[in-house]
Structure formats: C-alpha cells, structure tokens
Amino acid sequence: MEIVRTWGGKYFGWIEEGGLFSRDGRHVGEFRKENVFSENGHYLGELREGRLITNEIKRETHSSVGFWPNHQEGAGPTPIPGDEAARDLPEGYIDFAV
Q1: Helix (H, G, I), strand (E, B), or coil: what is residue 29?
Q2: Counting C-beta atoms within 10 Å of the first and last residue's C-beta, which end of the chain has fewer, N or C?
Q3: Distance of alpha carbon 90 from alpha carbon 66, whole angstroms
Q4: Cα–Cα distance between 22 and 20 in angstroms, integer?
C-alpha cells in the first residue's frame, strides 16, 4: 500500500496492486505505467514525484481500456494520513481531482 496525495498536498488515498483507491475505499482508477485511468478508460492524471497531478493535454488525448472496480471500504491506512504542503503547479497541469 502506497499512500498518495494530490499535488495540492491533500491526502487522496492509496495505490495497491496497480489500483488507485480514494480515502473512502472507492476504486477510482487503474495505473497504466505512470498514468491513471477511470473505470471507463478516461485519463484522470498521473503519479509524478509521488503525488497525483493532471496533465491538461492528456485529458483530451489519452484513453485506455476500462476496468471493473473493486471497492475496499475500510481497507485504507489507519490512522488517516494528514495533508502536506502544496507544491507549485507546473505549466500545463492542474491539481488532481476525481
């Protein structure tokens, strides 16, 4: 289990076996290399420097096969990790949101 935060520093959830899970255990994405895609195959963002961030161009140009979500309610870390300081957004990127 790898804890992940958004580029803005907010605790998002965790990565486990290639899946991205939100803080409430919803299986919101699957990784294809560094990119993460929704269950419908839409580009959501990527993991960069250990944080989730979204490339605005990739939102329009990248897609992948979908997946069947495998929710893991109550399976996250305890205690819930705190937020960290935000980082400056690189040009062409926005903070990760689902």
Answers
A1: strand
A2: N
A3: 28
A4: 7
